[in-house]
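Support reply, case 0932

Customer input (verbatim):
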Amino acid sequence: MSVAGPPGSVMDRDEVDRALVRLDAEHEAIETSLLALQDHAGRRLLEGAKLTGTTQERWLAAERQITLLWTYFDAYAGTLRTAREVRERRRWPNRDDLQELTRLLRGQSVTVAGGSASGAAPSITGPAKLTERFTLEELVARMNDLYAHSLDMVVAADAVWSALPARIDLLAAELQRTRRLAHSVGVRPGEHPSGDDLEDITHELAALREQVICDPLAFWQPAKGSSAPGGGRPHTDRYDHAARALEDVRREIDAVLTVRQDAEARLGRLRDLLSRADRTLAEARSARGEVLAKIAASEVPAVSGPPTALQEQLAMAADYRRNAQWHRLSPLLESLEEKAEDELLRARESLTAVTAPLAVRAELRGRLDAYKAKVARHGLAEDPFLIERYDAARRMLWSAPCDLRVAEQAVLRYQQAAADALASRVSQQGGPTDRRGEA
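Our regenerated output:
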């Protein structure tokens, strides 16, 4: 490629001096940025890490970009140095000096070996050019582009490394504390679902940390519409999922701990419930024998024995408590508490059903005595007919076995006779009929 002449008019001395001041400032700013990139913690980490995946691919490209950046900068600095040397020849530069300075400051005066036609990065697939020529302005634009791409990659990796590994380590520490607590209450892998969950979370956190270290850019989410280097944030979906799973396990373990604290009291309440149910059933069996002996022509339901299955489960629960198998004790206690309440209710219903004939006999005795008292209040206690009916009903109700159907008919006959006698007495006296106590 031939050397191009200075485009447009030749610069005068003032224009040259102003351009050199601006370019010197620009040179200093570029050098400061490159040194900052060179010393960036993220870049040093990338250099020493065993990278994989997206990060490895982009870091290889970024390394070439950074190398090319320094090549461009050296060429830029060399051209600028040459321009300063030309300007310093004379206080008042002649026309040849001004033409040379114009060519250096405005023309394609910078030649770079082994560059790329791409504005973003050196080509790794297409044929590379042996040399490229730039104006200082074009070279600055190229360096800015390469710097932005390189810095974006470095900042993104550093942001992920700064955010995720520390959070993963904190969660892993919490996981270890939870594992120790889980083991203390019998929540272990293969024995309890939460123990299996803890193992899964452990493996997930280990794999997640390794992937974050080796391929941080796989966990980077660029900001939409942002062109600033490092615009975006680490995405933490897998970490958040593991954290939620660990929190679920924590709640389960807290429930088991509650069981451990309340186990003895709950077992005591269960023993009391089952003991009350047994006593009620025993009372029902005793009452059934009494009913069969005292009441005739009555169907008395059978009474079942004590619930041996519940006693066996209660013994199993006590064994779980002695062996600190809280994860097994928790569901067993909940089931036993419900079954024990049902068993006590069933025992009470059985006692009520068995003693129903005795209750009927007691009600008939009460009615008979109530009418006898009413008859006595009206002066009919010595009535032979009423005495005969009363004695017949009383013999049936106080004899064993008592036929309730026959006894009830006898009580009704006495009631009717008493009612008739009272009505006759009232009509003779001309007063109102007192029908209190009639069936």
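We compared this against your earlier run and they match. Two observations from our side: The CA atoms of residues 165 and 210 lie 9 Å apart. Confidence is low (pLDDT under 50) at residues 1-6, 116-126, 433-439. Please reopen the case if you see a mismatch on your end.
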